[in-house]
């Protein structure tokens, strides 16, 4: 019976992937195929969970589903560093007038960091509004395992002052950072690419021939990497199907019920931050309905894939093609948005966790000192949060450790992490797009 159940699960899984492939051959739109993968994965995961959970080889079946899911995530991770590097250097080679560099950088960074500070405040208020301050969550086997793993990760950040954390953002060995050997490798590559771009602008007039050769090389590499990205993105419906099937097949539904308030509070905070984004867009005369209609496919991809980095290409294309954003600004805002100003992962999430756990150790969360410390630490620690899975956990560890708060809360919410992370990622990508659109409109208005 166990072999039969294994064959049934694998046959259903392979059959579902073949069905998605047939939809591609029939030229069904990419967005529709992603939605089919999303809801198909949810249904398939629920079915095998209900029918086969108690079968002895259930975990073996899931390992084959995980193979597809993890391979898809690995391919997205493969793209992060090349995309970040090429996008930022490419942004500098496309700057028509270098005097706009200061305005562009200042506006983009101000929006990214400013909205992160606001998102921290929103996360704090949401936790209080839903009565989560001081809440205690249940601890199961998965949670215990996660807490133990987090304790080891905490050693990397515990007792490290903010000044040293900022120093760690600077690349010492850029090749090691290209390999992603540090939690802050992404922002380190961003910094190195920015220096390279500034150097390019510095020699542009004096060495016109050499600088043009460099620009042509970067733009050629950009086209090749974007083509590789397109090939990976074609796998999205299959990857999303496998990811959602695994999530639904392995989720602790009892924990989902217990953590229901936390889920609702998180989504409420995320919705509020989307409203903040809309207000910023209205400032430059872009209506929320226009933004959502034009950015919907990009936000949907971010929601389903749970990776800001994987959405980078779509983010840039959406800004340029649908909002007429300058190409350099679009590349700059989208690339910096991968590691700076992630409103969901580096803003709302760590602020909520800190507010929940602080009262359990006798901290007065209503004191001005706590509120300002929380917002400041969250904003500063948001620098360098990678745009692929795990960024929210890393940001939370830094914030909780910096405020001398217990980190166990990060492990206790593991059961609902995927469900919340989808909306957080969409919010992160929205912020990067808003930063680009607003910056472009302001610079054009001042020109």
TrEMBL record:
- Does Ribosomal protein count among this protein's keywords? no
Recorded GO CC terms? plasma membrane
SUPFAM superfamilies in the record, alphabetically?
Proton glutamate symport protein
Cell compartments where the protein resides:
Membrane
Q: Which UniProt keywords apply?
A: Amino-acid transport, Membrane, Transmembrane, Transmembrane helix, Transport
- Quote the InterPro entries the UniProt record gives: Na-dicarboxylate_symporter (IPR001991), Na:dicarbo_symporter_sf (IPR036458)
- Looking at the UniProt entry, the stretches that span the membrane are 6-22, 34-52, 72-95, 107-130, 185-203, 224-244, 264-284, 370-388, 394-414
The molecular function GO annotations come to:
L-cystine transmembrane transporter activity; symporter activity
How this chain sits in the membrane, per its record, is: Multi-pass membrane protein
Pfam families from the UniProt entry? SDF
PANTHER family, A to Z: L-CYSTINE TRANSPORTER TCYP (PTHR42865:SF5), PROTON/GLUTAMATE-ASPARTATE SYMPORTER (PTHR42865)
Q: Which family does it belong to?
A: Belongs to the dicarboxylate/amino acid:cation symporter (DAACS) (TC 2.A.23) family.
Which named protein is this? L-cystine uptake protein TcyP
**Organism name:** Pseudolactococcus laudensis
């Amino acid at each position: 019976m166990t072999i039969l159940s294994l064959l049934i699960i694998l046959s259903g899984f392979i059959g579902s992937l073949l069905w998605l492939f047939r939809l591609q051959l029939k030229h069904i739109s990419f967005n529709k195929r992603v939605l089919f993968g999303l809801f198909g994965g949810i249904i398939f995961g629920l079915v095998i969970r209900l029918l086969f959970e108690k079968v002895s080889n259930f975990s073996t079946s899931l390992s084959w589903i995980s193979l597809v899911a993890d391979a898809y995530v690995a391919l997205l991770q493969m793209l992060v560093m090349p995309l970040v590097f090429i996008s930022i250097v490419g942004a500098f080679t496309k700057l028509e007038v270098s005097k706009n560099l200061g305005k562009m950088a200042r506006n983009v960074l101000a929006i990214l960091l400013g909205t992160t500070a606001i998102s921290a405040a929103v996360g704090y208020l949401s936790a209080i509004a839903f009565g989560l301050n001081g809440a205690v969550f249940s601890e199961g086997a998965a949670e215990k395992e996660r807490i133990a793993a987090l304790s080891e990760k905490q050693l990397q950040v515990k007792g490290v002052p903010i000044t040293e954390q900022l120093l760690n953002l600077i690349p010492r060995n850029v090749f090691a950072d290209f390999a992603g050997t540090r939690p802050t490798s992404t922002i380190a590559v961003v910094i190195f690419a920015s220096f390279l771009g500034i150097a390019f602008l510095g020699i542009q007039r004096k060495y016109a021939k050499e600088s043009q050769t460099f620009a042509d090389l970067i733009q050629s590499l950009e086209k090749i990497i974007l083509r590789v990205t397109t090939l990976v993105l074609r796998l999205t419906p299959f990857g999303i199907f496998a990811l959602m099937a695994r999530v639904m097949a392995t989720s602790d539904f009892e924990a989902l019920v217990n953590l229901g308030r936390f889920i609702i509070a998180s989504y409420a905070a995320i919705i509020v931050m989307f409203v903040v984004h809309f207000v910023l867009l209205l400032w430059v005369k872009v209506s929320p309905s226009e933004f959502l209609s034009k950015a919907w496919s990009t936000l949907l991809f971010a929601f389903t894939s749970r990776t800001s980095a994987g959405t980078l290409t779509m983010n840039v294309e959406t800004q340029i093609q649908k909002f007429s954003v300058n190409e350099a600004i679009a590349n700059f805002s989208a690339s910096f948005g991968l590691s700076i100003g992630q409103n969901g992962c580096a803003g709302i999430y760590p602020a909520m966790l800190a507010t929940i756990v602080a009262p359990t150790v006798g901290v007065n969360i209503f004191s001005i000192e706590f509120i300002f410390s929380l917002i400041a630490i969250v904003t500063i620690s948001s620098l360098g949060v990678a745009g692929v899975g795990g960024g929210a956990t890393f940001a939370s560890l830094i914030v909780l450790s910096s405020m001398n708060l217990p980190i166990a809360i990060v492990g206790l919410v593991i059961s609902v992490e995927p469900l919340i992370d989808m909306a957080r990622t969409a919010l992160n990508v929205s912020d990067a797009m808003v930063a680009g659109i607003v910056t472009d409109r302001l610079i054009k208005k001042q020109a």
